[in-house]
Amino acid sequence: MSDHLMNTYMRQPVTFIKGDGVWLWDANGDKYLDALAGVAVNGLGHAHPKLVKALSDQVAKLIHVSNYYHIAEQATLADKLCEISGMDKVFFCNSGCEANEASIKLARLYGHNKGIDNPEIIVMDQSFHGRTMATLSATGNRKVQAGFEPLVSGFIRVPYDDIEAVKQVAKHNANVVAILVEPVQGEGGINIPKQASAYLEAMRQICDAHGWLLMLDEVQTGIARTGTWFSFQHSHIKPDVMSLAKGLGSGVPIGACVARGKAAEVFTYGKHGSTFGGNPLACAAGLATLNAIEEEGLCQNAEKIGNLIRSEFAAEFKNTPGVTAVRNAGLMIGIELDRPCGDLVKIALAAKLLINVTADNVVRLLPPLVMNENEAKELVQRLAVIIKTFLNS
Ligand SMILES: Cc1ncc(COP(=O)(O)O)c(C=O)c1O
Predict the structure, then answer these.
(1) Ligand 1 site, residue 24, Cβ cutoff 6 A
(2) Ligand 1: nearest atom to the Cα of 187
(3) Residue 98, domain member (yes or no)
(4) What is the mean pLDDT of residues 18-43?
(5) pLDDT above 70 covers what percent of the chain?
(6) Are both 193 and 157 inside the same structural domain?
(7) Backbone phi, then psi, for 387, in 5-degree steps?
């Protein structure tokens, strides 16, 4: 502990010193089951041997140069991301909010290039896009914005999973240039559109009809989390722009704004940049992560284990009225309670289990993509007892 850290986090009273797969150990030698994976970051679990080797090799060669020069690892990672997504071009940055900043800048520039001087972007209620000024302004949560006014203008908010609302905006506003939306809302409470692929497909149609960009924030849903490389791949559409971060570097900071077609040509020389973005170390982490996901079938595993966890929890809570819903998109799992349940984080920690609570009353689980069946069943058994005890207390 230090008095010299700003008070931005409500930290749990534990310090981890090592990890292996889905397990973490604290300084006392106690072992924890990690069902949060650094908030959807450690997809390969902790200390994955392929990642350790790739990073050690890269550190010994080159950590950073500058985007003044060609970077081989960056080019290879861009090629790989485009291959698995069907997109065309990538801009690398260092985090999810930066990836969204790039998307927002890209959309505004796209609008200006079309002669729209005050471009506006449609965003959703309950969304989360980050904590920089533009991304907190795009975010649909007053708690994230309060105290930071004046907000960045140019965002029009509509309810999530409501195509009619988007159509109404289209009727009345000629300045719209893009929609920015999460395929599944993570921080908002694991909100899955009622017909997820139809929702994206309808937005694709509206964007095409009006010349808007469809921009997906896949920072949390991307990199195999929902059972496909990217969540949009459960549907039949492609976005124009997609933001990535979290799972891409397995903990080495990296973000990416990935674009397709006309959107991929919007940024030209001098329009955007980053000192660290896409440096050799971060890109080596990204490449090792994507290769391991592919070699070990982790998209399929995320789907299989996520569905197993959801069905086991559904069975556990069949006669538990305090649990109002159990839902998942791959290994994004939400257990909704009928009351605020933030205290569960501390209770679970005391039981050596790492979980998260979001939107006040949703237990959120984002386990490593490498979780196996036994570990999944252990997670369900341990957490079900904790939630039932909490509800009865
Ligand atoms: C959907 C989404 N977008 C953006 C972000 C912001 O990412 P970062 O914290 O890396 O800036 C997050 C983080 O939780 C997220 O879930």
Answers:
(1) no
(2) 16
(3) yes
(4) 98
(5) 100
(6) yes
(7) -70, -40
Distance in angstroms between the alpha carbons of the first and the last residue of the chain: 32
State the closest ligand 1 atom to the C-alpha of 131, by its place in the atom list counted from 1. 11
- Residue 246 falls in the annotated catalytic set: yes
- Mean pLDDT, rounded, for 334-339: 98
| Ligand 1 centroid from CA 67, angstroms | 24
Quick one: which of 389, 327, 386 has its CA closest to 188? 327
Domain holding 315: CATH number? 3.90.1150.10
Cα separation, 182 vs 99, in Å, equals 13
Count up the domains in the chain and report the number.
Answer: 2
pLDDT at 188: 98
Contact (CB, 8 A) for 373 and 344: no
Take atom 3 of ligand 1 and give the residue whose Cα is closest: 129
- Whole-number pLDDT of residue 53: 98
User: Per-residue pLDDT tens for 159-199?
Assistant: 999 999 999 999 999 999 999 999 999 999 999 999 999 99
Nearest residue to 326 via CA among 140, 187, 192, 188 = 192
- Tell how far the Cα of 38 is from the centroid of ligand 1, in angstroms: 12
